[in-house]
Amino acid sequence: MLQVNFLRDNKERVLEGLKKRQFKNLELVDEAIATDEERKKIQFELDSQLSEINKISKEIGMLMKEGKKEEAESAKSKTAQYKESTSELKSQLDVKEKALLDILYQIPNIPNELVKNGASADDNEIIYQSHDVEGLGEGAIPHWELAKKYNLIDFELGVKIAGAGFPVYLGKGARLQRALVQYFLDKNIEKGYMEVNPPHVVNEASGYGTGQLPDKEGQMYHVGADDLYLIPTAEVPVTNLYRDVLLDEKDLPIKNTAFSQCYRREAGSYGAHVRGLNRLHQFEKVEIVRIEKPENSYAVLEEMVEHIKEILTDLELPYRVLRLCGGDTGFASAMTYDFEVWSAAQEMWLEVSSVSNFETFQANRLKCRYKADGKSQLVHTLNGSAMALPRIMAALLENNQTAEGIKLPKKIAEYARFDLIN
C-alpha cells in the first residue's frame, strides 16, 4: 500500500507510474489526498477539544481547592459538552480513516523506472535466454500423454476426487515431485535461506498484508465457516511472520524459504494452453522471501535472479528471463522478473518462476519496520518462486523423452534415485 504522504508529495510521478501500468482509476489518487485532508481536519478539531478538556479538568481541580464550587460545576458542564462533541468526532474520524484505507487498498504499487510501459505480456522485455530452442520433431508427445504412458500422473482420477486441476501423482511421478522439492529446498538453504514450515491457510489480515486482498479475492479459495483463505503461495504466510514487527538493523537481511501446497481458483482459465500441468488449482511450490534494507533491495533482486538461473541450469532446461512491462506487473510489485522454460513438445514457453521487489508496498500494509540509529523506517520485501513444480515437471518430461524413456538430468536423478522413467 502506498502512503498517502507519498501520493501527495509525488503526485506527478505516481500518476505517470499508474499510467505505465495501464491503471484506469487515476481519480483515486485525488480522492485519497482529499480524504486525508478531511481526516486531518477532524483530527485537528478532536485534538483541540481533547486539549481543552484537559485544560478545563485542571481548572476544575484548582477551583475545588479554592472552594469555588459554582464555577467548578460550570466548568464540569463545559467538559460534558466537549466529551459529547469529541465522541462524535471520534466516530467521524473512524469513518474517514476507513474510507481512506479503502481507497489506498485499490491503488497498485508504482513501477520502478526501469519497468517498460506496456499493456500485456506481449510487451515484456526478454533480457536473457540460455539456448536457441526448437521442437523435438515428429513423434514427440506432450507431458499429459507421457504421464499417461508411464503412469506418472492421473488427471481423470483427480477429477473424480476433487475436480479438474487437481491431479494425482503416482509412482515415479510422485517420487520425482518429492525429489524436486527436496532439491529446491537444499539449493535455497545452501544460499543462506532459513527453512520455515508455515500454515497453508491465512486470515484476512494476512491476505491484506501481502496484497492478495482485495486485489485477488476472487482467485483465492475461501473457507467461509472459519473466514480463512487457502494460500495461493507460501509468500503470504511467510511474509506475514513479520507483520506488526519492529526489527533491529542487525536482524537484516532476513532470508526464508518454504515448501507448500498452493491453491488458486484460476477462474476464467480455459483452452489448450491450460491443459495438463500448464495450469492447476492445487500445486507444489518452493518459495524464497527476503526482508531487506531499502538501499540493498535492487542488488538483492538481481542476486535472486542469478540464484534462479543456477537452478534452471542444474535442471538442464532451456530458459529465458523477462522483465515484465507495467501492464503485466503484479498489483503489489515494483519490478518483476519472470522465468520461462521451453516446452519442446508443446513448442511454447512456460512460466515457472517470478521474482519481485515490492519495495515498501507490502511493508506499509504489514507495518513491518526496522530501527537504525534510533529511527524506524519501512523495510523492503522481495519474494520469488524457487521453484513452482507443475511446469518444471512438464518441461522435464517433454524435453527429455527418448526412445528408451524419459532420461532425467543428473542433478535430479541423484535426488530421485533413478535416472530413467520407462
Notes on the structure:
Helices cover 42% and strands 21% of the residues. The protein is built from 13 helices and 18 strands. It has helices at 4-9, 11-20, 27-65, 69-104, 143-149, 155-161, 171-190, 204-210, 235-239, 297-314, 361-366, 389-399, 410-416; strands at 125-129, 153-154, 168-169, 194-195, 201-202, 222-223, 228-230, 246-248, 254-263, 282-292, 319-323, 335-343, 348-357, 369-372, 375-378, 380-388, 406-407, 420-421. The strands form five sheets. It has an eight-stranded mixed β-sheet. Strands 5-7-6 form a three-stranded antiparallel β-sheet. The protein has a three-stranded mixed β-sheet with strand order 8-14-15, with no helix packed on it. A hairpin with a 4-residue loop joins β12 (335-343) and β13 (348-357). α3 (27-65) runs antiparallel to α4 (69-104) and α5 packs across α12 (389-399). The longest helix is centred in the first third of the chain and has 39 residues, at 27-65. The two termini are 51 Å apart. The model has no long low-confidence stretch (mean pLDDT 94).
Spatial separation of the terminal alpha carbons: 51 Å
Order of neighbouring strands in the sheet with most strands: 1-11-12-13-16-10-9-4
Task: State the helicity in percent bands.
Answer: 40-55%
Uncertain segments are none
Notable characteristics:
422 residues, alpha+beta, 8-stranded mixed β-sheet, 3-stranded antiparallel β-sheet, 13 helices, 42% helix, 21% strand
Which helices and strands appear, and what pairs or packs with what?
Elements: H1 4-9, H2 11-20, H3 27-65, H4 69-104, E1 125-129, H5 143-149, E2 153-154, H6 155-161, E3 168-169, H7 171-190, E4 194-195, E5 201-202, H8 204-210, E6 222-223, E7 228-230, H9 235-239, E8 246-248, E9 254-263, E10 282-292, H10 297-314, E11 319-323, E12 335-343, E13 348-357, H11 361-366, E14 369-372, E15 375-378, E16 380-388, H12 389-399, E17 406-407, H13 410-416, E18 420-421
Parallel strand pairs: 4-9, 8-14
Antiparallel strand pairs: 1-11, 2-3, 5-7, 6-7, 9-10, 10-16, 11-12, 12-13, 13-16, 14-15, 17-18
Helix pairs in contact: 3-4, 5-12, 7-13
